[in-house]
Specification:
GNAT_YJDJ, Acyl_CoA_acyltransferase, Gcn5-rel_NAT, N-acetyltransferase, alpha+beta, Aminopeptidase
Length: about 90
């Protein structure tokens, strides 16, 4: 089951709503560097791959914009380790 992910550029975050729960990946953009600061998926909807989907969309967005990625969020750092196709984005 996939849920539509919205890029809220002004708020510097990616969001999706699952079973009325807001799930968020937050970042800070400086020059051409995206620092992923936080990924939050409420426990009630955890374990469904939502954080992975948010992270993948964020990384794909970074790639398409030619942004470097700083995974300050521990989840994003682990995701990148598990998906070496994104390692080239990190600084």
């Amino acid at each position: 089951m996939t849920h539509p992910i919205k890029h809220e550029v002004q708020k510097q975050r990616f969001t999706t709503t699952v079973d009325d729960h807001l799930c968020v990946l937050e970042y800070e953009l400086t020059d051409s560097s995206m620092t992923i600061t936080h990924t939050r998926v409420p426990e009630a909807v955890g374990g469904k791959g939502i954080a992975a989907s948010l992270t993948q969309v964020a990384l794909d967005t970074a790639r398409s914009n030619k942004w470097r990625v700083v995974p300050r969020c521990s989840y994003a750092a682990v995701y990148i380790k598990r998906h070496p196709e994104y390692v080239d984005l990190t600084t």
